Amino acid sequence: MFNLEDAYTNITLDDIYSKVSEYELWKYYCSNFEGLEKPFRSDLYNDNNPDCWIYKATNNRLKYKDFGTGDSYGIIEYIQNKYNCTFKECITIISNDFNLAKSKILVTNETKLLNFEENIPKDKARIDILSQSFNLTDFNYWNQYKIPLDLLQEYDVFSCKNVYLIKKEKIVTFTYTKNNPIYAYRFTNEGKYSYKIYFPYAEKKFKWLFSGGSSKDIEGFDQLPLFGDKLILTKSLKDCIVYRILGYNAISLQGETNRLDQELVNKLLKRFDSIIINYDNDTEGIKNTIRLHNQYNFKYFYIDEFKDISDYIKGYGLEKTIELLKIKMEEIDE
């Protein structure tokens, strides 16, 4: 059985320096750097003067010095500062950018291709996933929503180097690129794994490839605490993770049009004081919000100006999103 922890090789700084020199790292991550002790403009801010340079310190490490601001960094600190990432995220990014981590193959049972490519039969097929460690492209994508890479691991989200769709003798390969990253969401239901493959930059009808699962796969369910106050029913795993960052528990059905099972509602209401609906602020989301409200009398709210909480935090940042939710919850409690 595939173990999530096995998907990410433990890479240390010594492992990195044994394979890649500091000079190579500086050339890769510091775009304006041309050579040791050659002045250049900082790419950390809008720098008008070439006040920065990289030199060899007394301990033989290469150091970055900005004489305009007084800032000084080693390569790891520089990457953390440039991309606003943690030490662990920084190590993971480097290890994947320089192919220092091993990939794993995730093999699913059955796959259903839904309107993905016209030349592939729309019945069951097999899908294999070649996973990879998270890299800088992944960090930049998820950081738009303030989602750290460590939290993706907790929610069983994988970066996919390749996805293979296998139908008899025919194999279609989807390959990860910087402009077309691919992610796999893994769900557990009755001891079996199922997957959703996510292509975030594809057209809407091509964003998803579904593997094996069913409407009983509840996104975010495995990550819930045993008991809690409010539970938000939202419409995507991404929104569930964003709500987790904001301090709220959240789950999602596989789609807004899916039915919410009464048995599941009964179980959840034994663990949480209330269930609140937050579907998209669009025609489909509003229609299904009213449907569930009429069925279960759940309270609900919509996100102002944007269709969902993920787009709001991307547009306005963490603090304003926290302020918005405080207002929404106060209105819910009235």
Describe the structure in brief:
The protein is α+β, with helices and mostly antiparallel strands and 334 residues long. It is built from eleven helices and 15 strands.
Biggest pleated sheet: 8 strands, antiparallel
Low-confidence stretches: 1-9, 107-121
What is the helix tally?
11
> CATH fold name of the largest domain, please?
Dna Topoisomerase Vi A Subunit, Chain: A, domain 2
Q: Count the E strands.
A: 15
Q: Give me the secondary-structure category.
A: alpha+beta
Q: How far apart, in Å, are the first and last alpha carbons?
A: 48 Å
Label the CATH architecture of the largest domain. Answer: 3-Layer(aba) Sandwich
Hey, roughly how much beta strand do the residues contain? Answer: 15-25%
Please tell me the total number of domains.
3
Q: Quick one: overall form? A: globular
Mean pLDDT across every amino acid position: 84
Succession of helices and strands? HHEEEHHEEEHHEEEEEEHEHEHEHH
Binned, the helix content reads 25-40%
CATH class designation of the largest domain: Alpha Beta
Radius of gyration: 23 Å
